[in-house]
Automatic annotation (TrEMBL):
<dbReference type="InterPro" id="IPR029068">
    <property type="entry name" value="Glyas_Bleomycin-R_OHBP_Dase"/>
</dbReference>
<protein>
    <submittedName>
        <fullName>VOC family protein</fullName>
    </submittedName>
</protein>
Length: 116
């Protein structure tokens, strides 16, 4: 399994980015509107970590890995068959790929399919 995108939702984006910069030397870019104004940095292996503020008043802080998949529809169907609850159906983010979110075991889980 490989992480395509690691999403961190926090009330203090700058503090989280500063901590990662200090701990690992990673470099974050500016906010990317298509990713909810997340500031992103490259992960080893080719994925991204994105740190963003909540997009709505009731969005709680969360750390959500998005696992790379070849067929997001099939992967989401398999997760649902295994008892996962679809929280967000597949949605394309132009230039970045397609994501979906499901809930299982009290955690958020993401799937990510790269653009072909």
């Amino acid at each position: 399994m490989q992480i395509g995108y690691l999403e961190i939702v926090t009330g203090d984006v700058d503090a989280v980015c500063t901590a990662y910069i200090s701990a690992s030397g990673v470099q974050f870019g500016g906010p990317i509107p298509e990713l909810g104004n997340a500031r992103t940095a490259k992960l080893e292996g080719g994925g991204l970590v994105g740190v963003r503020a909540p997009l709505r008043e009731n969005e709680a802080p969360v750390v959500r890995p998005y696992w790379l998949v070849q067929d997001i529809e099939a992967a989401l169907a398999a997760a649902a068959e295994a008892g996962g609850e679809v929280a967000h159906p597949p949605m394309e983010i132009p230039g970045h790929g397609t994501f979906a979110i499901y809930l299982q075991g009290g955690n958020d889980h993401g799937l990510w399919q790269l653009d072909h």
